[in-house]
């Protein structure tokens, strides 16, 4: 640890992240980081989702490709609440699969990064959001596969994706 500032680079799944810690008395008092670039390629594109209907989806890169859906509570009748976990997972996985088919994405520097990986669902008041992470295979013909896991904790790449989307608007 170096006082007053310690700098280092962390290798993360999203890429190399520059970290800066402001230090005093052998403790970090604050930490900032420079995340990987984040950018929007689609904003509120209408995607027809089987069994759901039309959904406005944004596609944002921030370490991976995110699909972002706003206003799931008011536009789709699914408040972001624990009791709606199963509905949110099914909705999110179906939208993600449809977005993969309808919104082609390719990272400009790495063509192997070419598919939406994860989805962010946001409330109309923007005070609640959740990420739906897949937990198995998916088949349009088998609703039992429309599952996932919810993550309500903010992460660096997801937060950066949402910030890039807000900035682009």
UniProtKB/TrEMBL annotation:
GO molecular function: 4-hydroxyproline epimerase activity
Source organism, top-level taxon: Eukaryota
SUPFAM superfamilies reported in the protein's UniProt record: Diaminopimelate epimerase-like
InterPro entries: Pro_racemase_fam (IPR008794)
Pfam families, per the entry: Pro_racemase
Family as reported in the entry's similarity comment: Belongs to the proline racemase family.
Protein name per its UniProtKB record: Uncharacterized protein
